[in-house]
Amino acid sequence: MTSPHEGDDESSAAEPGTLACARCGVRADGPPPTWTLSVENGVRLHYCERCSRENLRAIEGRLDSQWW
Fold it and tell me: Please, which contacts does 37-43 make with residues 24 or more away whose CB atoms are closer than 8 Å?
């Protein structure tokens, strides 16, 4: 069974070259260096700086211990 979002990333729903934050929906042209990229279940998700900072503990909690 495949996910309906398999192979999708948030930018596919927006204009070409524009990314949308997977949490709050804010848009940006290209990948800003302060945004976070996450691959969850094979889907690339981008998170804006604000959402990344607000959820830093949850992000770090999912990392294997070798990364911290």
Answer: 41/3, 42/3, 42/6, 42/7, 43/3, 43/5, 43/6, 43/7, 43/8, 43/9
